[in-house]
Structure formats: structure tokens, C-alpha cells
Amino acid sequence: MPLRELQYPTEPYSKVNRLKDRADYALEAIHRIVNTCPLLHVSFQAPGSPFPAVLPMIGQMGSFDRPSADLGDVLDLYLHGYVSSRIMNTARSSSSSSASETSTETSTEESKEGIPITIAATHLDGLVLSLTPNSHSYNYRSAILFGHASLVTSVPEKLYAMELITNSVVPQRWAHTRVPPNAAEMQSTSVLKVRITTGSAKIREGGPHDERGDLEDRGVVERVWTGVVPVWSVLGTPVVGGYNEVGEVPGYLEEWRGERNREGEEFARGVAKD
Amino acid sequence: MPLRELQYPTEPYSKVNRLKDRADYALEAIHRIVNTCPLLHVSFQAPGSPFPAVLPMIGQMGSFDRPSADLGDVLDLYLHGYVSSRIMNTARSSSSSSASETSTETSTEESKEGIPITIAATHLDGLVLSLTPNSHSYNYRSAILFGHASLVTSVPEKLYAMELITNSVVPQRWAHTRVPPNAAEMQSTSVLKVRITTGSAKIREGGPHDERGDLEDRGVVERVWTGVVPVWSVLGTPVVGGYNEVGEVPGYLEEWRGERNREGEEFARGVAKD
């Protein structure tokens, strides 16, 4: 246990420039936001495209070399490659270097470490309603990671990542399905590993804040309702599939669902107050 | 009313390559996903950075020139610039061209039309639990827009966008706050307008699907629960702020909240079945 928690270095591209008191560079805070986010937004510059590509993907941070690592340790991000054929193609084509499309520096970096990508994980926790539109805000937790993505080729590491990602959707789900994946499934599923260069988080909690001028205006304060509408994501009663033959919704699913719903509400309500 | 609904052109960078039957290029479908999404993920290539920037932002599509335009019409995207100082700086610095950092083509494009950005809007609607980890999926609605962003300088257009964005957080909120913004607020708030080049949506609905091999395996089908856990975002009971003096939570907020919660649940449950 280090005396101080590990922090990511602040690079010009990762530094929080606005409302710096909301910034957090601690690995644990950042990794927690990422690992509780059911959808990540992954961005990379596809060669020949005038716009960056952005893909919603499922991912999870972990350590294949040291599976017992906790959230505050150095971790890799594993992304489920099913929807990422464009990244895969970019990763593949980047090794057969095309210097005309990217700068020399970038090509070298790509073939050595994988393609540079940025990952965003964001939770919306509340609508902060204040006296003026200008001071309206959200309560939120937002993390950004920067790193280099490459295809996982080792079978044990791929299986580790597949289990990690499946269990991030529903804890214990992997062991309750038909595993291990067969040869065709291993072939058709790709997993990307992102070695993280750095990252940052930005968090807003608490009630509304307004300027003194409005707070002292009786007419405004007496007319405009101010407070927070807590927001969280709910997991509803499971809907049975067409070919399901299991009589009851399993306990591992129902217990986790109840817990997640309670925690979601508690958290959003908890951060709604100053 | 055109005979066929308007569609965005499919460019190499916007085309859905995988699971094409989930793709939708209709303006209405795409704009609806964007305008119901409380957080957008905005990506652009900052000069000198090895990684694309990704920022969570609030935005809304509309038409200042024709405010009565509906979701199926050609619209612009307005982004609240509060958190976008890096885009703003990039937009500003890109006009004082620095050819060393970007290709000639890009520089010309930037100074003419604004900086190229990509916007992602994603709704998670359900966890699709099937027999094997490989066939697990999400129900989701995802939209991507590509366009060029520039700062809104016209005061009436900026006010139009500020009202549009405020009312997207809570309908009718603008008129129930202290408006119009004063000179200092107009000065400190930036609004970005994105002229859309093209876009696409990808939508997954329905129950689980599995391979014949697993469906015919009695042991597997009798052991693994399959179905969908519907997911939606809930707006909880409002938490009164520290300086609120309005006795009751206003009707426009409570009615909308109830409606949004009902619709969210109905939608997620509705798409959970085949």
C-alpha cells in the first residue's frame, strides 16, 4: 500500500483546464468510473477520414499479469472488439505503414505500440436546477483515458478479458453460461487491449450555486424552484426470452439487480446535497 | 412532406460496416436519438496532441433559420460551450493557420467551415442475456454525427440555442428562470454550432439470439436463464436546494418527470421482446 495513492501524470492533452477543483487524477477514482460504466465511447483517428471515429463499446479494466490487482493499481483496458471492426482494420493497416496519411512520428508509434485511442466514461447523476439558465449544471462523474490499442492474440489473455467483460455486464454471468467459447467463437471475437498512457476524471457533486446578484433578488428567489433532480440508471424486472426454459430468474441476477438499483438511487440522492 | 424521408449520405467514415441490418440513415431517427440524449460525447483532433480529445457535452439539434422545423428536417447541432474551452481554443487557433500541425487541406477546411468534429449519442435500453457469452448483447440506440463546429457570434442565434439547450434538460425551464441572461452571462457562455455533413444510427432491439448448436443442447437450455434486463434512466424525487424558497416542486417539472419515467420504462420493456 503506497503512502499516497497513484496518480496519472498531467499531460497538456489530459489536463482539466476549466473548473479545476472538479479534477481528479487518482488511478482509483478514474478506474472506478470506467469499470462501472456500461458503455464507453472510444475515439481514434481513422486514416483518410476527415473526422475522428467514435464508437460506443463495452470495456473493463484489469490486469492479466496480476489478476488480483485492485482499482488503484496500474491496469489495462480491455475492449470488446465485436463492434470495433474499424479499429481492427485501422490497427492492421497501420502496421503496413502509409507515411502519406500520418506523420512519421505517429506511424512509428502505431506500429510499435498500437493505435492511439481515447476512451470516455460518463455517469449522469443529477440535473442541477438553479436560478438562471447560466448556472444550471449536471452532477456527473466523467473519466477520460488515453492509450494505445492492440489486438489480444494470446488465448489465455483473451479468455481472461472475455470473462472480465461478461462479468462486468452481470456479475457471475460467465460461470452461468455455456463456456468455454468454442473455436469458432474464439475466432470471431476480437479483444483490444489498451495500454494506458494517462487519464483524468472530472466530478461534479452538490446542490445549485448562483451569483450573489440573483440570490439577493427576492422576486427571483421566491419564483424559481432550485434543487437537484437525481438521475440514475435502473435495471427493470427481467423479461423472459423466447426459448428460456429456466423457471425462475436466477438469484445472482436478482440480488445484483436489487443492489445496483439501491446503490444507484442512494448515490444520486447523496450527491444532490451540498 | 417529401414522399420518402430524408436520409444522410453514406460516406466511408459514416457507413455501418458490421451488422448492417441495425443501421439507419434517416435524419428523423438520428436526430431523435441525439435530442433525447442528456449527454453527448464530442471528439475532435486537437493540434499537437497524439490522441483525439473527447468531451462529454450538452447539446440539441434545431434550426435557427426555421425554428418550426421538425426532427426529420435538416438541422444544426448546438453545443453548450461551457465545458468546451479546448474546442474553443482550437477553433480560435485554427483560424490563425499553423500549417506545420495540420495538413493544408485540413487548415483550409477549418478556417472556412470550422473544425471537424464527431458527436456520439447513445442510449442503453437493455442487457441481452443469452446462452453463451459470445451471443450476449445490449439493446441500444446509437447515433453518430459528423460536422464542422464554429462559435455562434450572433446574439439572437446564441439566445435561441441557449433556450433550446436549457429546455432540453427540463422542458419549459427557460421561461421559469431569471431570463434573459445579462451581459456578463452572454459574454461567459459560448455556444458552438455544428453544420452536419452526415451521420448514421445503429439500433438493436429484441430478445436474445443463439446458435442452433446451443439451442439444441438440452443441458445448456435447461441451465442458462435467457432474456433481457430492461435498462432506463430514472429521474428521482427532486431534492430541494439550500436557498430554495418555492414551497412546492413546480408542476411543469413533476409532470414531465412522471412522463419521462413512464416512457423510459415502457420503451425499455417494449424492445425487450422480439
From TrEMBL, chains A, B:
Residues 90-115 are annotated as: Disordered. InterPro entries: Pyridox_Oxase-rel (IPR024747), Split_barrel_FMN-bd (IPR012349). Residues 93-106 have a biased composition (Low complexity). It holds the Pfam family Pyridox_ox_2. Gene3D superfamilies: Electron Transport, Fmn-binding Protein, Chain A. SUPFAM superfamilies: FMN-binding split barrel (SSF50475). Transmembrane segments: none annotated. This is Flavin-nucleotide-binding protein. It comes from Dichotomopilus funicola.
